[in-house]
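The pair is set out directly below:
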Amino acid sequence: MKKVTYIVLVGIALLVFAFVGAKLIPITLAPPLAATHKVDINDQTLIAQGEYYARVADCVACHTAPGGKPFAGGLGMQTPMGAIYSTNITPDIETGIGSYSYVDFERAVRKGIRQDNQPLYPAMPFVSYKIVNDAEIEAMYAYFMSSVSAVKQQNQQTTIPWPASMRWPLAWWHALFSPARSFTANPNLTTEQNQGAYLVEGLAHCGACHTPRGIAFQEKALSDDVSGQFVSGSVLEGWYAKSLRNEGLGLATWKQADIVEFLKTGRTDKTAAFGSMADVVAHSTRYFTDKDLNAIASYLHQLAPRPGYEKNWQSKADTTTSALRAGDFSASGALLYMEQCAACHRLDGKGAPRIFPALAGNSIVFAEDPSSLIQVTLAGGEMATTAHDVMTFTMPEFYHLKNQELADVLNFIRNSWGNHGSHISTRDVATMRRVVDHAPVHYVPAKEIENE
């Protein structure tokens, strides 16, 4: 009995220590700037710069729900424990960030601590924003406070159940996985490549989606190192954000100009952005200057492949085109491909440039993780809307097909026209079907009030 009592007392003591420590962490590890730090929010040059940096940081895509007001929040993001919703970052005094001083704003963006001293969820890429320089943060503050329309919209509560929904334990996550850091130029890179590294690691926060995460949802690398894990591919909300490294299943088959074109228009002659990346292009990367796009492409193009990963992906001989043209549909999934896919993607799997993405030689098709391919086939998808192309095309959903049918046709696609990819099982399809079924419902009030 004494032993049980002792264990209980120790447990209570540890819990009290953890709670008190969590309250002290934001103060000690993320102290606010001096209250005297002021920003002229009426400086038109500063505001214009801030609009550009907000585009680079992709603030609008995350903080705007489909059909909602810009920056008013409500975008649902699925986690293993439940959905969280982006917050209102318009300058509304009551429901947004209108009462935030620059000190409050900088602390939230770069240190992940709200005005009320509560830690933010790591879905907010403050870990990346830590390296962003002062001038860019100041410009963003001027833009949000002077040029963004204030919207009175309450923030939607998370669906994560208690006790996992308690915020104070997040402070310990910050202490463990959000180190103080700054950007250091690599002397082995060119000036252009270092600018690309600064953008990729910082405001553009490419690693937030493209770097694998650990058991605590922490990014396994925040910059390029010997592990090669930085931007080496990761799955979020059922989408596989592919490797951006110069390896066969990454960007080794892409030219630097392809990367620039993709980020600027959401398409190339072979592929197109879909899922979350389509939103990134539509709201963010299409607004980048050519200088910044080329810097990013130059940096990504020089990233070495991970240890054990081939740089050169070699296609196999194409025996599929001739078989389909000869009416040979004996291969598993071939007949279904003819019935459901060939009209757009053609018998040779080459599609139509900038209209229907190619399946032959498309690195997204034979990526090491087929999650995105499965999800876009199940749920459909829409290309990014940009000024470059007159029309935006939509991939229809094939949710009605059985799991075996989907597995068959996707395996056919991943291993035809010279492609060679890993096997997709019916279990893989069933798992993705559950992801699609449990996608969060975005929050948009029936009537939004926009302040004058």
Summary: The chain has a mean pLDDT of 90. The chain has 18 helices and eight strands. Residues 191-301 form a domain with the Cytochrome Bc1 Complex; Chain D, domain 2 fold (CATH 1.10.760). The first helix runs from residue 2 to 29.
